[in-house]
């Protein structure tokens, strides 16, 4: 939920250089936002089966929130120096601003939870993730991926170990501890930070990221599908926690724990596969829409406008849901929400610029001086 523009250039050693806003990142973020809306109100299928086109809508299970998290890492990387992170003392001020943003996002998240909609709100987890990446802002991309890989391996273990503590928790406890596990989503944010540090603006980097993301995702899903096919009842398993059918052998349970391709399951294959999809989407978006001229910029504007104000659009759709007398859940309802989001974002962006919540959070963060 951070703006994709870098911190202002200064004469301080290690300060980030000025850079152009990446419109492709905004487009990818719009895809994530609209996908999360589909998961909330679109009436999508319970489980994805590539052989059955009627289930393809289930692609919105888990992947949009993953894309959202990877983009959070990308945004943090872009605002903290792009390929060359800021050095002392500027990096200390960048970290302080990120901490302020984290606190603001957590506060907004709890306000949205208080609306009591049947939607798991991801913002408090995001705020925690912002705080967790503060110490690694200057870590090299290769080591960021190593740490992300360790999180992917630990993800199912932590999810299963902590699940009993939330067995009797209410909606708030479940969404904070189970549905969006911190270890799992930390892997995504670290991958996004590594993507930003790799030089996302370069065409060559975009092509490499697109190919590698697609290859990693395809490999993970093929391996998972062959070794740990979904057991019966998996479609109704609780999100965020691995699932093994009753009566499974130890080997089958082990395979389901680490290798299951089930969406939003926190298994190692799920984390790697969805992270690969997210990287491919971001790379494709930047490849298609950045540096392609005025016409392409205008074509991308509706989605880019939505993606430029993620905190506002995400919060706004939950407020609208809370105001409705009945919970909307259909493809038609999603269509109206998507159209409303695009129109609002285009008008606001055209005449007022930065989104209202983005402007407010930026004002809070600016209380920490960069000079």
Would you kindly provide a written description of the structure presented here, covering whatever features stand out?
The chain has 371 residues and is mostly helical. Helix content is 63%, strand content 0%. The longest helix is centred in the middle third of the chain and has 25 residues, at 203-227. The relative contact order is 0.16.
Draw up the topology in text:
Layout: H1 23-41, H2 63-79, H3 90-113, H4 123-133, H5 141-162, H6 171-179, H7 182-197, H8 203-227, H9 250-259, H10 268-289, H11 294-307, H12 310-323, H13 331-352, H14 356-365
Helix pairs in contact: 1-2, 1-10, 1-11, 1-12, 1-13, 2-7, 2-10, 3-4, 3-12, 3-14, 4-7, 5-7, 5-10, 8-10, 11-13
Q: Quick summary of this structure?
A:
By secondary structure, this protein is mainly α. The chain has helices spanning 23-41, 63-79, 90-113, 123-133, 141-162, 171-179, 182-197, 203-227, 250-259, 268-289, 294-307, 310-323, 331-352, 356-365. The chain starts with 22 loop residues before the first helix and ends in a 6-residue tail after the last helix.
């Amino acid at each position: 939920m951070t703006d994709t523009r870098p911190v202002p250039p200064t004469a301080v050693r290690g300060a980030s250089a000025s850079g152009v806003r990446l419109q492709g990142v905004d487009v990818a973020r719009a895809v994530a936002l609209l996908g999360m809306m589909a998961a909330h109100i679109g009436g999508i299928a319970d489980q994805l089966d590539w052989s059955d086109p009627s289930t393809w809508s289930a692609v919105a299970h888990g992947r949009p929130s993953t894309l959202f998290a990877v983009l959070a890492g990308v945004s943090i990387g872009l605002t903290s120096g792009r390929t060359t992170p800021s050095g002392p003392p500027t990096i200390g001020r960048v970290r302080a601003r990120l901490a302020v943003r984290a606190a603001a996002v957590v506060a907004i998240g709890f306000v949205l939870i208080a609306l009591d909609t049947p939607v798991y709100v991801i913002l408090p987890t995001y705020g925690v993730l912002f705080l967790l990446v503060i110490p690694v802002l200057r870590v090299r991309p290769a080591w960021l991926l190593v740490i992300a890989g360790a999180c992917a391996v630990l993800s199912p273990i932590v999810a299963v170990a902590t699940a009993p503590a939330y067995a009797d928790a209410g909606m708030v406890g479940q969404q904070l501890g189970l549905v969006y596990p911190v270890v799992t989503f930390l892997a995504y944010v670290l991958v996004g930070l590594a993507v930003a540090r790799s030089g996302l603006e370069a065409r060559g980097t975009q092509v490499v990221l697109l190919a590698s993301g697609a290859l990693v995702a395809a490999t993970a899903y093929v391996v998972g599908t062959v070794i740990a096919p979904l057991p019966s009842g998996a479609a109704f398993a609780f999100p965020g926690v691995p699932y093994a059918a009753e009566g499974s052998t130890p080997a089958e349970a082990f395979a389901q724990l680490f290798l299951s391709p089930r969406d939003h399951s926190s298994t190692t294959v799920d984390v790697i596969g969805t992270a690969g999809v997210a990287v491919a989407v971001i790379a494709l978006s930047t490849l298609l829409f950045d540096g392609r001229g005025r016409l392409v910029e205008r074509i991308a504007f509706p989605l880019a406008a939505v993606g430029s104000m993620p905190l506002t659009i995400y919060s706004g759709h939950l407020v609208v849901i809370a105001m409705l007398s009945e919970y909307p859940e259909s493809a038609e309802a999603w269509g109206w929400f998507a159209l409303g989001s695009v129109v609002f974002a285009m008008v606001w962006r055209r005449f007022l610029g930065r989104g209202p919540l983005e402007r407010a959070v930026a004002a809070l963060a600016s209380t920490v001086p960069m000079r």
